[in-house]
Amino acid sequence: MYGMNRVGMSRALKNPFRIALLFIAVVFLLGMSVPPSRADSISDKKEQARQVEQQLNSLQSELNRLTAELNKTESRLTTIQANIEVNEAELQTAEAEYERWQGILSERVVAMYKQGNTSALDVLLECDDFETFINSYDYMSRIGNHDAEAILATQNLMAEIRTRRAELENAKAEYQAYSSSLQSQQSSVQSKLNEQKAILAGIDADVASMLSSRYGGGGGGGWNVGPVNGLYFPVAGPHSFTNDWGAPRSGGRRHKGNDIFANYGTPCVAITSGTVVQRSGGNAGLYIFLYGDNGHLYYYMHLQGYAASGRVSGGQVVGYVGDTGNARGCPHLHFEWHPNGGGAVNPYPLLVAIDR
């Protein structure tokens, strides 16, 4: 029987038609043994990645809008604060000058009294305050042209003081309103950043790898965006920024970088390879200098903490987003670019080119 089977098989293999049928049967059986869900699974994950990226893009658009509003509010607050400081200084000067003229006129009243003119003193005693007295028609008619300059100067100062006090009160009320708005906007930005973080933390590795580099392509790790022309984006996590270069800052300063908003503790990475020097103090809080191997100098300010010093490679973690210095309550990375180690230039075009 065994011999006949071998003969039969041999004959079958010599028949082209039967060979074709045998091949089809084998392929069919092999196809039945392969799980059909593999292709479907990949397709599902691609669709999931597309939906996730669409959701993230929508969040990013809203986040960018909120960040732009926040920067405008901060600039407006700075302008209001500067106006308040100028107004307070000028009010103080006006009040000091008013007191000087008040003293001059008071001495004039005393002199008139000593000369036997008691009517001026009578008017003074009838008035509740000096402002009423100086504006008294009776007093003005009796004091004569000799003190007209003092009277006019004092009246003008009174009007200026009233105006400046009203302006100061309005400016302080406006400042308080903008300050409250700024806190609300900061909370909104943090909320959107947290939403992005939660979405990315909830996807599996396959879906994460299918996302664009704009979102790091990596769920819980591998956040680096880049390299683009050898450069990495300085913040390795959900973030937003606008072109706030040159915006007004306290003390009459202008913003010499871009603020990149992100959650506390988000890793900051070396934009390029080079040498990191750690520093602290002043408005910058905790900060680093990165002397790039490309000859350029980069500043990272308001860090929550350091991660590396000395030699670093591009994309290596060098610190963490914080709010040290004058950034309390508003975590972000103040990033500056100093080409060839010179003065700061607007880093916005550079950041946009990397963050794509």
Description:
The strands form two sheets. Strands 3, 4, 5, 6, 7, 8, 9 and 10 form an eight-stranded antiparallel sheet that branches. Strands 1-2 form a two-stranded antiparallel sheet. Strand 1 (248-249) and strand 2 form a beta hairpin. Helix 3 (37-114) packs antiparallel against helix 7 (148-201) and helix 4 (119-126) runs antiparallel to helix 6 (137-143). It has two domains: 48-212, Orthogonal Bundle (Helix Hairpins), CATH 1.10.287; 224-356, Distorted Sandwich (Glucose Permease (Domain IIA)), CATH 2.70.70. 55% of the residues lie in helices and 14% in strands. The chain has 356 residues and is α+β, with helices and mostly antiparallel strands. Mean pLDDT is 81; it is low at 6-10 and 25-34.
Shape: elongated
Unreliable stretches, pLDDT < 50, 5 or more residues? 6-10, 25-34
Number of domains: 2
- Tally of separate helices: 9
* Mean of residue pLDDT values: 81
Indicate the proportion of strand residues.
Answer: 5-15%
Largest sheet: 8 strands, antiparallel
Tally the beta strands.
Answer: 10
Q: Which class do the helix and strand fractions yield?
A: alpha+beta
Rg over CA atoms, rounded to whole Å, is 38 Å
Task: Tell me the span between the first and last alpha carbons.
Answer: 72 Å
Q: How much helicity do the residues have? A: 55-70%
Provide the succession of SSEs. HHHHHHHHEEEEEEEEEEH
The CATH topology annotation of the largest domain reads as Helix Hairpins
CATH uppermost class of the largest domain: Mainly Alpha
What is the correct CATH architecture of the largest domain?
Orthogonal Bundle
